[in-house]
Amino acid sequence: MQPATDPIDLLERYGTLINQHRFEVLAPLIDADAIFWFNDGSFSGLDSIRTAFETTWARYPEERYWLEDVSWIARSSDAASCLYRFRWNATIDGRPASGSGRGTTIMRCTDGIWRIIHEHLSAEPKKA
């Protein structure tokens, strides 16, 4: 696989490959020093991030994940950041389930290769 050539390409690849549930295809898109924040914890470095992904995939083997309403809030030749809504569906205990939340991804370009350096996903805020 060729390296991502820009942040949009990187995010599109990530959004496609994540549904293969194979971390080895995602790893080239994630910086070795990345930090991911999810509702269930903070994960630093590829080994920790791999464990978080694989734990989720084992729990929800039929999960499908996608992004909507992507808004690029910063873009330069060496860094970019976007906000989005993420959605998922899965089968939990034999029943269909789905959900959504908010996300932020920060990417950086090193030696011409774009990678994710930070991702923060959180549940939708509770409505008053």
TrEMBL record:
<feature type="domain" description="DUF4440">
    <location>
        <begin position="10"/>
        <end position="116"/>
    </location>
</feature>
<dbReference type="InterPro" id="IPR032710">
    <property type="entry name" value="NTF2-like_dom_sf"/>
</dbReference>
<dbReference type="Pfam" id="PF14534">
    <property type="entry name" value="DUF4440"/>
</dbReference>
<dbReference type="InterPro" id="IPR027843">
    <property type="entry name" value="DUF4440"/>
</dbReference>
<protein>
    <submittedName>
        <fullName>Ketosteroid isomerase-like protein</fullName>
    </submittedName>
</protein>
